[in-house]
Structures are given as C-alpha cells and as structure tokens.
Q: What sequence folds into this?
C-alpha cells in the first residue's frame, strides 16, 4: 500500500520475525540434542532447589520470606540460584542457537521501539522548514515545540524581515496587472501589444505559466507552437522589400525540430520565472538590478540621458518592485566609441562595468557588430552563469527586419536554442514597430522615412507617454516624439524597447506569483522550488559578515559544470570557473574592480571632463539652456567618459598591479590603452619606453599580440606558456624608461610619450 508506508514497515518486520522463528524450528539434529540437554538442566535445577529448601521459580513472585533488599543492597537468595541456573544453561547452548536467540530478541526490541516511535509521532525533520538557524536566526528547539500540531511550512519564512508576505504578493500582482493593462491599452489592445512587445523578439515569447518546467519536466512531448488561440505565432507584418527567411519559424520545421523548439521556449520562460521568483522571495534582496553594457545606443547619445531606454524602463517598471517592497535599478554602463572600445573588449569587464549581482544583463552594440559578434555574446552568456544571480542576457538591437529580429542568422538561432535555459533572447526596435501592422514600406515608397533622422511619430504615437502630459506648446513634447536621431534611437524609439522589456518582466513576475501562491496554498515551503536548502553556499568572504541569510543555489539553473561546450567562443576564455577579473578606469562603472593597485607610484588617474550637454541632441540642448534649470542639466548629462591611469616619463616610477591569482584559471592577461581605436600597437608593443614585468621578470613583447580589439594587447597567453606558471602572488608592473621608441611617425612618437591604461583584464 503506497499510501501507508508505516504499515508496510510493520509487515516487513513481521515477515522477518516469522522467517527467524521458522529457522529456529527447523533445527538440525545438533539443535535437537541441545533441547534434551535443556530438559536435564531443568531436572537438576528442581533437585537443587528442593535440597536448599527454596520455593519453585513459579511461586517466587508471591512468596515473602523477609529477605528483601535493604538500603545496603542485599538481594534475595533465590536470585543467586536463578543466575547460576541461567548461566549454566546459556553455556551449554551451541553458537548457532545462541545467535538465533539473540537475533530474535533484537528484532523484537527493534520492533517495539519503532512502534513506540510511530505511536508517539516521531518523524523525520522536514529539510524545507527545519531549524530556523538555516534562515539566519532562531533555535531548533523553538521550531519543534509544536511538533504534535500541523505547522505552516512558511511560518518562519514569513516572519523574516524582507519576506514576500501575502500582502506584498497581493500588491505586487495588482501593480503588475495594472502595468500590463496600461501597456496593452497604449499599444492598441492585448493582441497587438503582444505582437509588438512579446512575439516580435528574436525568439518570440509565449508568456504562459503552463510552460513552466517543474522538476519532473525533463522531457516535454507537447510540440504545440501555437498561441493557444488557433493562430500560429507571427513575427510582424511581412513586406516584400524587407522580407527574409526566418530560420526559427515552426511552420518550416520537422517534428523533431518542433519538439526542440518548444522545449527551448519552455526553458526560456522557466528561466524568466525563476529570475523573478528568486528575487521576490529572497528576504536579503531588496534591489532588483538590470545592468546594461553597450555603445552610444545604450548610453543614449543624441538624447538627454533622462530619455534613454534604461531610464524609461526604470520609471515604467519601478512600481512593480516597489509594490513588492523592493527597489528597481537599471544601470546604464553604455559608452560611446570615442574611447576606442567595442563589444570585443568591454564584455571582459562585465563584473566591473555593472554590478556583479545583477539579475539581468542587457547588451547592445548594434553598429559595432559586423561579423563574428556571436563570440562576444556567447562569452557574456556563459560568464553570466558564473555570477552570483546567474543573470539572463537580453540583447537590444537598434534596427531589425520587418518579419524577424535577426532570426535569419544561423548563429543567432543557435544561441537562442542552446542558451534558452539561461533566458537568452534579443529584441529589435524596428521589428517590434513593424509587428504592430503599420505599413512603413508603403510610406517609404511615398518618401516618408519614419526611421530616418529626426522624424517625429512612429505611426502609432507622436510623442512618448510622459510627453503626452506636457502642454502642446512645450517644444519638449515634439522632441520626445523623435523616433531616430542620426543612427541613434530617439525618445519614442527607446520607448518601444523599454515597454517590451517591462512587459516581459512584469509578466514574469505574475507567473512567478502564480507558482508561489499555489505552493503556499498547497502547504509547500515556498523556498524549496527555487533554492537549494540542503547545501548552503557562502558568499564572498567580505560579504559574509554583512549577511544574515546564507546564500542558496538556484534549483532551476544547471550547475556550472553542466554548461555545454561553447559554440563559437574559445574555451580558453569562456570555459572558465569565474568571470574575468577587470579593472576599468573609464566611466561609468557600477561593479567592483577585480584587480588591485598595489603601488601607484607617481602615476595619475585621469578622466575626460565632459559638460552637461556632451552628446545631448541640439534641440534638447537649446530647450534646457533656455530653461536654465540645473536639475535638468543633471538629468540630461550622460554618464560615460574616457579615462585611464597614465604616466609621461620615468620619474613617475613603477606602477604595480596585484593580479587575482586565486581566481585565474587560464592565465591570460590583457591591457588596453586610451584613447583611440588603434592605440594598442603603438602604446605597448612598439613603445620601447614602457617595460612590462611579471614578478620582476621583463615580459617579451614578441610573444604579445593585439587582442581582443586594436586598442588592447594580450600580454600573457596562458599559464605554462612562455615559461610562466601560476603563483600565489602575481605582480604585474608598468614603468617608463629612457629608451628610444621604435614607432616611426611624429604622431606615433607623441602618442608614445605617455602610457595611459584604460583596462586591465585577467582570466
């Protein structure tokens, strides 16, 4: 009876005892001889008792001869006789017989203790609830005082400061539903909003909690790729002059491909839900963080910083997390190309450019990705899974095709498929606008280019939602209706991106709440599904003293060792146990430098001193100059600026960095210069004035190469190469000498007169 395991245990014990007794009955002839010896022993015992005038054993308990034990511990004389008889009998038994008697006696004792334990309600500790100490406080005894009464497995969790209480769940649900309803109404109704904000992604979302992969859902036989309404998923309105072949369209897949496609869709939704659930439930997490790395598009150039998509997303989605008692922070580490950076070197600095504790990473380098950019995106996805919260990576594309967000690329579709379990996806601004049904191609044939420079109105709206609140005669209202400024999206172009991210994330919150509330209603511990409560994972040493709740591993995410072999990136860089360590002197950075300066000597830190209207559009600059409002000057100012650690002559001494040896697996070390796209060769390789040493040993520049882009040089290609080994202490130094530079042109000589380090990277 599977429903009554205790009854099964009793039956098993009864059977075991029966087998033992049966073995005792079927003794061999030697055992029968022992029985006859026992009879003789009994006769001798009776004779012994009669000679000593004692009563028989059977009447001992009822006889009182006045010889009871006194305070000194005297015993009955009969006890001495009994012991002598029993010892004599036991000594005459054979070893097999003694073993059977002992085995039977032990089984009976075990059965009695077990039955008593069951009857008294003794049960195994529930690991999901367990000791309050597992969640940072309380004593184990206080948790088990009410063991005889049914306990709410979430009682202790709900008592913690920062817990997601039923009241917070209710307010969070309301805020999420209100936001989704607002976005649906703003974008022309539920289905149209889904087409634009959800289905237009590179791998179209199907935001249905029924797709969530539970522990038992290892394989999924449901290959239905419809939306549930009988209509196949659409990727925007197809136009003849912008139509391309969509490689992830289920209508052109084999049955096996459909199954894998559907499974990927479920994995992606599961990761979205897991990301939201773990953030909402963790009582130690009060800030949901999204971190963006990218170029001038991400930075918001040609606009006020207030109008970049990150700022719009933060304002749009903030209410959902405030309702949950949390804060939303969207970090904008976008940086223009003037410093010489690109996706090729900036992805290595993900944990310094943005917080290492981000929940989601955004990546945007639309006008830099000419070919092979799948390498950097794969690196970023894989390094993200080594970060504390294992963030999803979402790629923002400033352009996009009419019927697909670049899903006509085999490499993109491969990334979507293989890394679906980590939530990877991409969103294209123009694809989303096409998906709403507006006929941009027909307009373009008439000379109306809404995606051209400074065009106001995207075919659906003539200004942003917050622009609609301004008076009609406010020049700012029209400025906010700009779709594109130069090649950068304008405020209205950024709005569709912010709305798409907000729609998907708010839907993820709702789906997470559905599962959390169902678990709570069913009497399940709400933490079990999302966290590993069996194995506590300590945080970084510096943070341990500041944390009252131990960090726990997410259940849904595979362990680090389960990462697939890389599709495009070199395992030397992207199959390592930790993300790269980086020290970035450019602005902005929101994370923690992974490399320390041991001795700065006379070297100095420099940053570009930009005015408030640096990279702000001319129209907005004029508007806010006229207002002369310091508060708006601050809101408009962009965060990015070039920077570096520099020296110009030998008098500045030796700059020494301490590499993080304990976190280095590959032994690769990279340095980048500032400022320019091709300064690596002249500043480091051809500049004889600069000496680079590792633990006092001068590095051979002939073994160095320009990598990963022309502003950077790979100093070390790995451990056990060029005679270098991993050591407990690894000190990398830079020093200028009086040697003559090998560069040839006057410009190169001027550039070589100083060394300015913008990045230092170690893997």
A:
């Amino acid at each position: 009876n599977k429903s009554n395991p205790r009854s099964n245990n009793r039956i098993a014990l009864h059977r075991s005892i029966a087998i033992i007794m049966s073995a005792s009955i079927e003794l061999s002839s030697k055992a029968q001889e022992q029985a006859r010896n026992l009879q003789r022993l009994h006769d001798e015992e009776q004779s012994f008792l009669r000679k000593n005038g004692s009563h028989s054993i059977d009447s001992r308990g009822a006889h009182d001869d006045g010889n009871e034990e006194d305070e000194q511990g005297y015993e009955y004389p009969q006890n001495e006789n009994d012991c002598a008889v029993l010892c004599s009998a036991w000594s005459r038994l054979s070893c097999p017989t003694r073993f059977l008697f002992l085995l039977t006696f032990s089984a009976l004792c075990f059965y009695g203790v077990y039955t008593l334990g069951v009857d008294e309600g003794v049960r195994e500790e529930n690991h999901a609830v367990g000791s309050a100490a597992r969640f940072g406080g309380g004593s184990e005894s206080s948790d088990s005082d009410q063991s005889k009464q049914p306990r709410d497995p979430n009682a202790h969790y709900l008592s913690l400061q920062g817990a997601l209480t039923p009241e917070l769940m209710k307010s969070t649900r309301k805020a999420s539903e209100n936001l989704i309803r607002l976005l649906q109404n703003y974008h022309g109704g539920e289905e149209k909003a889904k087409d634009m904000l959800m289905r237009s992604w590179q791998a179209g979302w199907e935001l249905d909690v029924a797709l969530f992969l539970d522990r038992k859902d290892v394989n999924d036989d449901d290959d239905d790729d419809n939306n549930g309404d009988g209509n196949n998923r659409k990727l925007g309105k197809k136009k003849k002059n912008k139509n391309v072949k969509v490689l992830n369209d289920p209508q052109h897949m084999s049955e096996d491909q459909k199954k894998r496609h559907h499974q990927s869709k479920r994995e992606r939704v599961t990761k979205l839900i897991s990301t939201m659930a773990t953030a909402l439930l963790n009582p130690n997490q009060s800030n949901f963080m999204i971190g963006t790395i990218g170029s001038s598009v991400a930075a918001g150039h040609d606009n006020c910083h207030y109008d970049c998509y990150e700022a719009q997303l933060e304002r749009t989605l903030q209410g959902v997390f405030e309702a949950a008692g949390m804060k939303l922070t969207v970090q904008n580490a976008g940086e223009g190309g003037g410093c010489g950076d690109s996706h090729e070197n900036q992805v290595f600095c993900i944990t310094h450019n943005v917080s290492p504790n981000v929940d989601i990473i955004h990546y945007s380098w639309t006008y830099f990705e000419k070919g092979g950019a799948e390498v950097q995106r794969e690196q970023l996805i894989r390094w993200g899974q080594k970060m504390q919260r294992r963030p999803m990576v979402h790629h923002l594309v400033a352009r996009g095709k009419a019927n697909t967000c670049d899903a006509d690329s085999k490499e993109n579709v491969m990334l979507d498929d293989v890394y679906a379990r980590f939530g990877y996806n991409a969103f294209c601004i123009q694809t989303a606008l096409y998906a709403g049904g507006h006929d941009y191609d027909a307009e373009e044939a008439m000379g109306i280019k809404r995606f051209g420079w400074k065009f106001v109105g995207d075919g659906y709206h003539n200004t942003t939602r917050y622009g609609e609140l301004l008076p009609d005669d406010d020049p700012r209202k029209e400025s906010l209706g700009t779709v594109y400024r130069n090649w950068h999206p304008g405020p209205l172009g950024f709005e569709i991106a912010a709305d798409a991210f907000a729609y998907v994330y708010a839907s993820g919150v709702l789906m997470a709440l559905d599962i959390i509330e169902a678990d709570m209603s069913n009497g399940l511990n709400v933490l079990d599904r999302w966290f590993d409560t069996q194995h506590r994972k300590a945080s970084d040493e510096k943070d341990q003293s500041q944390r009252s709740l131990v960090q726990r591993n997410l259940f849904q995410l595979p362990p680090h060792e389960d990462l697939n072999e890389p599709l495009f990136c070199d395992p030397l860089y992207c199959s390592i146990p930790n993300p790269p360590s980086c020290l970035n002197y450019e602005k902005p950075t929101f994370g923690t430098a992974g490399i320390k300066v041991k001795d700065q000597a006379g070297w100095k830190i420099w940053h570009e001193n930009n005015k408030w209207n640096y990279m702000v559009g001319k129209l907005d600059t004029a508007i806010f100059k006229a207002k002369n409002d310091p508060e708006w000057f601050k809101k408009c100012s962009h965060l990015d600026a070039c920077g570096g650690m520099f020296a110009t002559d030998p008098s500045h001494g030796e700059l020494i960095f301490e590499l993080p040896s304990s976190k280095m697996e590959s032994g690769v070390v990279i340095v980048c210069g500032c400022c320019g796209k091709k300064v690596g060769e002249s500043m480091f390789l051809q500049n004889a004035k600069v000496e680079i040493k590792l633990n006092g040993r001068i590095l051979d520049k002939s073994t160095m190469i320009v990598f990963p882009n022309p502003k950077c040089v790979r100093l070390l290609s790995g451990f056990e190469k060029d005679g270098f080994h991993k050591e407990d202490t690894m000190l990398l130094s830079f020093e200028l000498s009086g040697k003559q530079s090998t560069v040839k042109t006057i410009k190169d000589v001027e550039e070589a007169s100083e060394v300015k380090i913008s990045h230092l990277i170690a893997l």
